[in-house]
Automatic annotation (TrEMBL):
<keyword id="KW-1133">Transmembrane helix</keyword>
<protein>
    <submittedName>
        <fullName>DUF4126 domain-containing protein</fullName>
    </submittedName>
</protein>
<feature type="transmembrane region" description="Helical">
    <location>
        <begin position="49"/>
        <end position="68"/>
    </location>
</feature>
<feature type="domain" description="DUF4126">
    <location>
        <begin position="8"/>
        <end position="180"/>
    </location>
</feature>
<feature type="transmembrane region" description="Helical">
    <location>
        <begin position="19"/>
        <end position="37"/>
    </location>
</feature>
<dbReference type="InterPro" id="IPR025196">
    <property type="entry name" value="DUF4126"/>
</dbReference>
<keyword id="KW-0472">Membrane</keyword>
<feature type="transmembrane region" description="Helical">
    <location>
        <begin position="165"/>
        <end position="184"/>
    </location>
</feature>
<dbReference type="Pfam" id="PF13548">
    <property type="entry name" value="DUF4126"/>
</dbReference>
<keyword id="KW-0812">Transmembrane</keyword>
Length: 202
């Protein structure tokens, strides 16, 4: 793979890990274990994910996240718990893709991967907070199921067709930016009212 493909795969995995870390680890692990997806040679560092212990742990996390993510406010609590876990996991997944002999590239990838995962995590958490404030509970289930589908489709494209990973990364990044912007617009008035209420009661 060329540099563009490597960067695309690393960025895509990091962004996806920001809201579905366990799904990313589980999918990569199974792909390595059974050869279902033809992973390129550059992904040799992901061999550790093929361990049954890692796959099993990821499966437990995936099942727990699948249900927790569809219940109002439980999803926000789950997001809060994973504020540190997802960025670290995203950074490590991105790091596993790059050439281990290139130390400079590894450092850059580690920082950018962690930043990308943190950005997508923050956008997801903010969006879910807004959805939880809405009166219709079906929004949580629909949103979570949509995220599941997007994650599964994006993981397949990234792992099976790494030449398309840069496009996937660009689309994911655009989605994260739009979601963060929408969440900020919705949360800002609430934050202002909260501050005004606090000032009046001091």
């Amino acid at each position: 793979m060329g540099a563009v493909e490597v960067i695309g795969v690393a960025t895509s995995l990091s962004l996806l890990a920001g809201w579905r870390l366990y799904a990313c680890v589980f999918a990569c692990g199974l792909a390595m274990r059974f050869g279902v997806l033809p992973l390129p040679e550059n992904f040799h560092a992901l061999d550790a994910l093929a361990s049954w212990w890692v796959i099993g742990a990821a499966a437990v996390g995936l099942i727990a996240e699948f249900f927790a993510d569809k219940v109002a406010w439980v999803d926000s609590i789950w997001d809060t718990i994973h504020t540190l876990v997802r960025p670290v996991g995203g950074a490590m997944l991105a790091l596993a893709v790059v050439d281990p002999s290139n130390t400079s590239l590894q450092i850059v990838t580690l920082l950018l991967g962690g930043g990308a995962a943190l950005a997508s995590h923050a956008a997801k958490a903010g969006g879910r907070a807004m959805i939880n404030l809405s009166p219709e509970p079906v929004s949580n289930i629909v949103t979570s199921t949509t995220e599941d589908g997007v994650t599964a489709g994006a993981l397949y494209v990234v792992l099976a067709h790494p030449q398309e990973a840069a496009m996937v990364a660009a689309l994911l990044l655009a989605g994260v930016v739009l979601l963060a912007w929408w969440s900020w617009r919705k949360l800002r008035p609430l934050w202002k009212r909260w501050n005004d209420w606090g000032d009046r009661n001091l």
